[in-house]
Amino acid sequence: MNPPHPAVVVPEDDAAVMGRSRDEPEAFAELFERHAAEIKRYVIRRLGADHAEDVVAETFLVAFRRRGSYDPARSDARPWLYGIATNLIGRHRRTEIRLLRVVERTGADPVVESFTERSDTRVSATAARRSLAAALARLPAAHRNALLLLAWGGLTYEETAAALGVPIGTVRSRISRARTKMRAALGGADPTALREETTHG
Q1: Separation in Å, CA 194 to CA 74, 144, 165, 190
Q2: Cα(182)–Cα(192) distance, rounded to whole angstroms?
Q3: 39-98: per-residue pLDDT in tens?
Q4: Distances 55 to 6, 63, 84, 90, 120 between C-alpha atoms, Å
Q5: Of 42, 187, 199, which Cα lies nearest the Cα of 125?
Q6: 78's torsion region: left (phi>0), alpha (psi -120 to 50) or beta?
Q7: Which residues of 65-86 are buried (b: 16+ CB within 10 A; e: fewer)?
Q8: Read out DSSP for 123-185?
């Protein structure tokens, strides 16, 4: 007789973990382990390393407090977490603009370096970083949030809409307008095609 096949354990999706955490608060730690590193990379890209730890910690604190109202139909909590983080980043808008202005002046900043690696080959990396930072700083905050969730957060249009709590048509409009301005600043390169290529972990 052949031995029975071991049961395949399917990991719970985020919604299931969130639901379980309502009665078992310690279960929420699983969501932190799954997503904190990714959220932190996004926050670092927007604010620099100095503010990242605090913003990420507050993101998950807010998420923990709101776990009872989480929509169980959303199996992936990333858009929700990105939305919370983006709202918190809004409190640091001056810091973000200041960081972008530093990059615009110096052209040297590892936070945005990988974003510009594949920009138009006619533009030097330093000039591309300066142009990118200047153009991002000039975008309205709502447009910058939508663009960077797509380009740096790696979210889809649908996920970006969920993160920002706006209709997908609004996201498409904001990104279209942002892309037009960014293309001009980057010598024709499409900013939403320039995805971060850092590995997860």
Answers
A1: 27, 15, 24, 7
A2: 9
A3: 999 999 888 888 889 999 999 999 999 999 999 999 999 999 999 999 999 888 888 888
A4: 42, 12, 10, 11, 33
A5: 187
A6: alpha
A7: eebeebeeebeebbbbbbbbbb
A8: S-HHHHHHHHHHHHHHS-HHHHHHHHHHHTS---HHHHHHHHTS-HHHHHHHHHHHHHHHHHH
